[in-house]
Amino acid sequence: MVPFQAGQAPYDIVFGFSNFIRDWKQYLQPVPAKYVNMRQMQDVTQSHIDVNSWDGEMIQFPIDGDRHYLKYRKDVIDNPEYQAKYKAETGNELRVPQTWKEYGEMATFFNGWDWDNDGELEYGSAEVMKKDDLMFAAFFSRSVAYAKNPRVPGGYFFDLESMEPLINGPGFVEALTDWVEATKYVPPGGINFGLGDEINSFGGGQTLFSFSWDDAFVAAMQDDSPIKNKVGAAPLPGSDRVWNRSSGAWENEFNQAPYIVWGWTAAVAKASKNQDVAFDYLCFFANDANHQADIAIGRFGVNPFKKSDFVPELYVERQGWDPEIAKQYAETLMEMEEGSTNRVFPLRVPGVFQFNSAIATGTSKALAGQLSPQEALDEVAAEWKKIVKRIGADTVREAYAVGVALEDNL
């Protein structure tokens, strides 16, 4: 953004993170109607139209779709021998975890022994825990079930009216408490895993569970993977209770919320002298042929965002996926995209990098045992207040209201 801020126009097209839209939209050319209305764009899911738009106007050009969901070893969870063993030793059913507490119990049980008989130890979960390497997104994925109450509108990250941070409330503290426990069932060195490590760990067959972007699942389903057609997809775990900040009390009922996380996007510079060519190039970049080739390779980081991506036969015929797994994958993602009304979108406000960096700093101290979860998030909340004051509460509120409207289905 520095060249744009200096009044220069060195680029026709920019690629970047979709949650930076508020910071850079003033330098971008809105997508012309002829592209918004073309068949290719009509295939984009509403969630990713929303991610690339600001207050109803498309600013960014969709090239990638992102959400966090659960990946698990289907050959283990569905194994009758292990189901019996788990029942005998814990008294509980071995199933796709419905809550983060179940996730932790199962991950602990399957941590540190050779449960796939490959001669190597396997572990419970691979997670992005490395400071400033996207760990803030992993934390929000763990938090939504406890903190996103469908009966309490008006903000998940902040109270929209007061702009008071909610990040140190009981829901977030509960999630961080779970996450601290997770350091006990990740692979050796797992507390320093970045996204690439998480992809390689789960995709290479080292762990029972993982959750983040599609990349680890796709890597596990590639032809060169030792666990192809041995994995499953499911929504993020929920919780048996959710915090109600209006009443100041826990509601003891099941809650689940998808996290439609930020991802890659592209845009055309407002100062570009080649805007038509630039938009045509983005049409080519994201056309069906290129897009289908890209989503088949985990390390490419391009994930489904078109309605046609959620047809199971696509993965069976082109990528050799087991039909049941392909159906489960497509249904899980499509339900997140189009079915849920209790969702969280990424924070998209001025200074978003500063807010996310504060989350990484605070939660990393809790994971390292330097602070309690409450102390860590109190520190984050204090830093968030400073950032809001520095930028201006009204400025942040105006931008935050756009995201709250999406989450509240207004």
Architecture overview:
There is one protein chain. Helices cover 44% and strands 10% of the residues. Helix 17 (352-367) packs antiparallel against helix 18. It has helices at 2-5, 21-24, 33-36, 39-42, 46-51, 74-77, 80-90, 100-109, 135-147, 170-182, 195-203, 215-220, 275-285, 288-294, 312-319, 323-339, 352-367, 373-391, 393-407; strands at residues 13-17, 28-29, 53-54, 57-58, 69-73, 123-126, 207-212, 231-234, 242-244, 249-251, 264-269. The protein is built from 19 helices and eleven strands. With 410 residues, the protein is of the alpha+beta class. Strands 6-7-5-8 form a four-stranded mixed sheet, with helices on both faces. The protein has a three-stranded antiparallel sheet with strand order 1-11-2, with helices on one face. A two-stranded antiparallel ribbon has the order 3-4. The chain folds into two domains: 2-67 and 263-339, Periplasmic binding protein-like II (D-Maltodextrin-Binding Protein, domain 2, 3-Layer(aba) Sandwich); 69-150 and 165-251, D-Maltodextrin-Binding Protein, domain 2, CATH 3.40.190. The chain is globular and about 65 Å long.
Helix and strand topology:
Elements: H1 2-5, E1 13-17, H2 21-24, E2 28-29, H3 33-36, H4 39-42, H5 46-51, E3 53-54, E4 57-58, E5 69-73, H6 74-77, H7 80-90, H8 100-109, E6 123-126, H9 135-147, H10 170-182, H11 195-203, E7 207-212, H12 215-220, E8 231-234, E9 242-244, E10 249-251, E11 264-269, H13 275-285, H14 288-294, H15 312-319, H16 323-339, H17 352-367, H18 373-391, H19 393-407
Parallel strand pairs: 6-7
Antiparallel strand pairs: 1-11, 2-11, 3-4, 5-7, 5-8, 9-10
Helix pairs in contact: 9-10, 9-17, 15-16, 17-18
